[in-house]
């Protein structure tokens, strides 16, 4: 019996070895005892899953791996660090008419890959790029990799600290940019007033806004549009903006949505908001990779919807009333009018039983226009707050 089992095992081994020989011979390999032995051994286990650091190392472009995959590197805004993704975003979502032969302001430029992609695309290639980056560790990388690439293609490019935008030197420099001269801009007592709001803008802004200060940054950007100040003194400057999802959802939210609020009303009153790139949840292309980032285009409206109110009054009304956005207006209005009757007389009666979160932008503007005409507004609110 034992001999029979031994013969059976030898026969099985011979059959398997013969099968291995046939397989290797058909593929052009020589069958050796070593091959036969390998065929019969247990397959090696799968390699272990890549560590988080290794995954980051694989995702980002070579020059930036040491910076972003080191121990605990965190930035206040999303940083794009993959050249292929930057090229894809530019060619797919950036309109050439917004960039070709214009001045581009790249705010929170990270390592400069969006600017580099714009320069690499002949259809998008701007005349000048001003990159602004607050993180001191990142500015040398822009100067090392992106600026020479831009100069090679005839694009003027400079790198600045973020606070450079707050100084008068920035606006003087921008007014005298080659793309400004001959386009209704130039040196003078107030050259910004020469450019009309309905003229084609020669400046485009690209920004990756802070994940922690996103509310303040977006509000400031919208105030520039409303007051035609900041970069918007140079006309109806379009804005390509990278925002973490919690803020992008608030900008595009519609009446009745959970995210609908003050930022929704501000953005949609002043701009046409276009969602250009919204990756499915879990697809992350920016560092830190746990942040989901969307790309939006804010196109300032040619005609603002306000009839009687200023932008400051509109923002004040939204900021005050949206605190209680889910209760009927007849109850929420006491934060504006403690009497609850005086201001209500200027509003359509059907407004009073509706919560603010279901009112669309024209209705919100109508509220602000009524507040602007209300004789008692300075009795209950400080003038400085308006």
Secondary structure tally, helices: 15
Question: Number of folding domains?
Answer: 2
- Second-tier CATH architecture of the largest domain: 3-Layer(aba) Sandwich
Cα separation of the termini: 102 Å
Q: What are the segments in which pLDDT stays under 50 over at least 5 consecutive residues? A: 1-60, 181-193
Q: Output the strand order for the largest sheet.
A: 4-3-2-5-6-9-7
Strand content: 5-15%
- Note the overall shape: elongated
Helix content: 25-40%
Fold blueprint:
Layout: H1 2-26, H2 33-40, H3 52-59, H4 65-68, E1 79-80, H5 83-93, E2 103-107, H6 113-120, E3 128-132, H7 139-152, E4 156-160, H8 168-175, E5 203-208, H9 214-227, E6 239-244, H10 245-252, H11 262-270, E7 271-277, E8 286-287, E9 293-300, H12 311-321, H13 329-332, H14 361-373, H15 377-380
Parallel strand pairs: 2-3, 2-5, 3-4, 5-6
Antiparallel strand pairs: 1-8, 6-9, 7-9
Helix pairs in contact: 1-2, 5-6, 6-7, 9-11, 12-14
Protein name: rRNA adenine N(6)-methyltransferase
EC number: 2.1.1.-
Binding site for S-adenosyl-L-methionine: 80, 133, 163, 208
Task: Note down, in words, how this protein is organized.
This protein is of the alpha/beta class. The protein has two domains: 73-300, 3-Layer(aba) Sandwich (Rossmann fold); 311-381, rRNA adenine dimethylase, C-terminal domain (Helicase, Ruva Protein, domain 3). 39% of the residues lie in helices and 12% in strands. The protein is built from 15 helices and nine strands. The chain has helices spanning 2-26, 33-40, 52-59, 65-68, 83-93, 113-120, 139-152, 168-175, 214-227, 245-252, 262-270, 311-321, 329-332, 361-373, 377-380, and strands at 79-80, 103-107, 128-132, 156-160, 203-208, 239-244, 271-277, 286-287, 293-300. Helix 9 links the parallel strand 5 (203-208) and strand 6 (239-244).
């Amino acid at each position: 019996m034992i001999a029979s089992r031994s013969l059976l095992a030898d026969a099985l081994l011979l059959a398997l070895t013969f099968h291995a020989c046939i397989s290797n011979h058909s593929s052009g390999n020589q069958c050796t005892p070593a091959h036969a032995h390998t065929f019969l051994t247990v397959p090696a286990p799968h390699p272990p899953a890549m560590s988080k650091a290794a995954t980051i190392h694989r995702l980002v472009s070579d020059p930036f791996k040491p910076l972003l995959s080191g121990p605990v590197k965190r930035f206040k805004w999303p940083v794009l660090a993959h050249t292929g993704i930057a090229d894809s975003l530019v060619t797919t979502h950036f309109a050439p008419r917004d960039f070709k032969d214009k001045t581009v302001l790249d705010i929170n430029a990270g390592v400069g890959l969006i600017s580099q992609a714009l320069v690499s695309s002949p259809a998008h290639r701007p005349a000048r790029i001003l990159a602004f980056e607050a993180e001191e560790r990142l500015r040398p990388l822009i100067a090392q990799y992106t600026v020479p690439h831009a100069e090679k293609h005839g694009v003027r490019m400079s790198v600045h600290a973020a606070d450079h935008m707050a100084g008068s030197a920035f606006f003087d420099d921008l007014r005298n940019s080659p793309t400004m001269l001959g386009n209704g801009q130039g040196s003078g007592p107030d050259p910004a007033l020469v450019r009309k709001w309905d003229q084609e803008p020669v400046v485009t802004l690209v920004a990756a806004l802070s994940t922690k200060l996103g509310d303040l940054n977006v509000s400031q950007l919208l105030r520039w549009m409303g007051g035609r100040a900041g970069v918007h003194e140079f006309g109806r400057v379009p804005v390509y903006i990278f925002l973490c999802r919690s803020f992008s959802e608030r900008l595009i939210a519609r009446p009745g949505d959970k995210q609908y609020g003050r930022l929704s009303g501000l953005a949609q009153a002043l701009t046409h908001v276009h969602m250009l790139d919204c990756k499915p949840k879990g697809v992350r292309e920016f560092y830190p990779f746990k942040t989901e980032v969307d790309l939006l285009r804010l196109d300032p409206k040619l005609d603002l919807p306000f009839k009687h109110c200023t932008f400051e009054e509109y923002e004040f009304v939204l900021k005050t009333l949206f605190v209680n956005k889910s209760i009927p207006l007849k109850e929420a209005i006491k934060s504006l009018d403690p009497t609850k009757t005086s201001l209500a007389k200027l509003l359509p009666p059907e407004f009073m039983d509706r919560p603010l979160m279901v009112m669309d932008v024209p209705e919100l503007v109508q509220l602000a226009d009524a507040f602007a005409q209300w004789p008692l507004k300075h009795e209950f609110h400080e003038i400085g707050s308006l």
